[in-house]
Amino acid sequence: VLIAGPTLLILTDFGEGLVAYAKDIVPLSNPFGRDDDAYRQGWTAFYWAWWISWSPFVGMFIARVSRGRTVREFVICVLLIPSVVCVLWMAVFGGVAIDQVLSDPATSAVKAQVIDSYNPPLSLFAMLEGLPLSSITSVIAIVLVIVFFVTSSDSGSLVIDTITAGGKVDAPVPQRVFWATFEGAVAIVLLVGGGLGALQAMVISTGLPFTLVLLLMCWAIIKGLRAEPT
């Protein structure tokens, strides 16, 4: 996508995106004293709750794979590198999609699917239709989405399995399969019953109890770091 699309525009957007991210992350993360209620509720508050609800799974998984690493290595690999990759992803795919809409709005598949019909789930494939070898890249995109879901579900079921097994890493395999199946069933029921709105409501509601836990954990990690010998 980077090579087939407007490469210079993408690289420019990537550089500007990094600067904007570093400059605006603190102001946009502040939900108070702002006039853009729609943005605050749809992005700031929602994604706070999203990551808070994910924190038990992501936290335990990262803690296991990061054992023996230094704090500096942890910050670089868990915070800095993923942030840069996210900005690059948005610059490449978002930049190409916006360029397609602005360059030829009459025949743009992105405009027809996302803007006119408001079908965001098809935005990636609509963007790929405007590039060479769209059939191949669409298949690759589907495979990557499946791999992402499988790996995310696997790590989530692993963490839930460990918690329900009292911290045992080598819990019975059928128990882990049960949790993975249960997660998939709940996701399907929510999508079929209420769509994305039901999933968002569930995320926000489940994220609230973990907020207090995270505050206590933040205090605990600061206390632990201060107790470590320099």
The run of helices and strands is HHHHHHH
Gyration radius, in Å? 21 Å
Q: Compute the average pLDDT.
A: 80
- Count of helices? 7
Proportion in helices: over 70%
Stretches where pLDDT falls below 50 for ≥5 residues? none
The secondary structure category is mainly alpha
> In angstroms, what separates the terminal alpha carbons?
46 Å
Q: What does it look like?
A:
- The relative contact order is 0.09.
- The longest helix has 55 residues, at 173-227.
- The chain has 230 residues and is mostly helical.
- The mean pLDDT is 80.
- It has helices at 7-29, 37-65, 71-103, 109-116, 123-129, 134-164, 173-227.
- Helix 6 (134-164) packs across helix 7.
List its salient traits.
230 residues, mainly alpha, 7 helices, 81% helix, globular
Brief sketch in words of this structure:
By secondary structure, the chain is an all-alpha fold.
Topology (SSEs and partners):
Blueprint: H1 7-29, H2 37-65, H3 71-103, H4 109-116, H5 123-129, H6 134-164, H7 173-227
